[in-house]
Amino acid sequence: MSVATQRSGGGGGGYVERAPGGGSSSLADVVELILDKGLVIDVFVRVSLVGIEILTIDARVVVASVDTYLRFAEATNRLDLYEKGGKDLPGLVQGITEGGAKGKTSGVLEAAAEKVNDMLASNREQQEVRRRPARQRARENEE
Amino acid sequence: MSTVEAEKPTYVYGLVKADAVIPDGLTGLGPSGRVSTISHGRVAAIVSDVPVDRPLGVRGDLVAHEAVLDTVAARGAVVPMRFPAVVEEHAVVDELLAPNEDHFATLLDSLDGRAQFTLTGRYEQDAVLREVLLGDDEIRALREKVRELPEDASYYDRTRLGELVVRALEQRREVDGAGIIDRLEPFAVATVANQLAAPDDVVNAAFLVERGRQEEFENAVEGVGEELAGRVRLRLLGPVAPYDFIPEE
Fold first, then answer.
1. By the CB < 8 Å criterion, does A56 face chain B?
2. Helical spans, DSSP H, in chain A
3. What interface predicted TM-score (ipTM) does this complex get?
4. A26-64, pLDDT tens digit by residue?
5. Smallest CA–CA separation between A129 and chain B, in Å?
6. pTM
């Protein structure tokens, strides 16, 4: 059986999700693609001469933190390890996938993407954005 | 000297060969929305006007930069500029194209007939956590301990459990990620492995692919995706401009 690869539009049939470039990409894709990449020529360093203010974009999101650890601990705790009377590993793996179970920690990345969104939407609030994880942690500790 | 007129700032998206046909319907990030080219000799710059009433770098600017470049890249060779690239209008020829014509022409030749694809992969979370648990006694024991403790008494152990799981994922993905890249490298002219962000990211790699082998490459990716189904979810972005294959100056 051959599976047709999606040439455009993404989603649909194949095993691999497809995303064409050229204006239909998500902001997260765009940031990852273009930031800090491409040709740099001396002449562009003198941008200030032109009198254009450039926002600095720092979208590197560091997710290795206590927050990340707690999310993965929670996802691990949630797992029902010996469900359905002890299948072997491949069987278990398959079963879980077919069930379409979606992990809790996908929230980490969504949160990160949101953070990037925030940063790009209002760059001047970068400091505010950077402070947020600390506040999230604090909230979690209170709970 | 004091009478020099204010120059028109110009945004430069990237470079193409002078004879390249730029597709219609591109939308620039400037107030006019128009995108055009300025050519010199064998090379040309894809340019537009620039917003002057606000700082450059908001979401729409990034998206426009990418959309222009990737739409052009879908048809032919393009050298993307690093965002954001602004010069005075006269400098596009005087300082960008003229002094670098040979260099740019060579670079464009080397990218001719090639496009970038970016492959990302993420573990199917429950499947891989199950593997981690079944494969590590310490993690399994710690999980049992955490499950028996009330939440407020288990903060330290939960953090430790999460840390061990994250480390285990990072070890696993090193092998899995390299395996994926090894399988696809033969179909590409060049490959770049990018840094991974989240612990359950398995792969993030850019492949420079000959257009003539695009289908072969896509089928190979699909084959890897089929093999990994249920364990790793792959996502293929492209064809896009060769962002990861521009040599550092």
1. yes
2. 27-34, 42-45, 47-50, 66-78, 83-86, 89-98, 106-121, 126-142
3. 0.83
4. 888 888 888 889 998 877 666 555 667 777 766 555 556
5. 16
6. 0.78
